[in-house]
Amino acid sequence: QVQLVESGGGLVQAGGSLRLSCAASGGAFSLYHMGWFRQAPGKEREFVARIARSGGNTLYADSVKGRFTISRDNAKNTLYLQMNSLKPEDTAVYYCAADPSYYGSAVYEYDYWGQGTQVTVSS
């Protein structure tokens, strides 16, 4: 089974950018659909973006569309989330997730999860 480790989080001012990475190991990364999710304090985990195995099919939450870009490098076993024009409401712990057959937006459908990386956007 695949193991996932996120990195790249941190503190940034509103309007700034960050790039998150999710390194996968222990499985054939190219066989998994991948997603990014986030969870703010006191809120449920929510969908941010997802990308199909091949990388050619992406979907975004309305709240991040036009500001965030999901991508993957199957040769490097790595998933990315480029986050631009960050807002204070983007503050959350960001998680990557993987599933061999599902590539929608439902949190509970993904089988494998990383430990998360904190993103804090100051106003």
Task: Kindly describe this structure.
This protein is mainly beta and 123 residues long. Helices cover 0% and strands 50% of the residues. It is built from no helices and eleven strands. The protein has strands spanning 3-7, 10-13, 18-25, 33-39, 46-51, 58-60, 68-73, 78-83, 92-99, 112-113, 117-122. Strands 2, 4, 5, 6, 9, 10 and 11 form a seven-stranded mixed sheet that branches. A hairpin with a 6-residue loop joins β5 (46-51) and β6. The radius of gyration is 13 Å and the shape is globular. The chain starts with a strand and ends with a strand.
Shape: globular
Q: Helix count? A: 0
Element order, helices and strands?
EEEEEEEEEEE
Indicate the low-confidence ranges by residue numbers: none
Radius of gyration, CA atoms, in whole angstroms:
13 Å
Based on secondary structure, the structural category is mainly beta
**Mean pLDDT score, rounded?**
96
Taken as a percent bin, the fraction of beta residues is over 45%
Number of strands: 11
Major sheet details: 7 strands, mixed
Helix content: under 10%
Tell me the span between the first and last alpha carbons: 40 Å
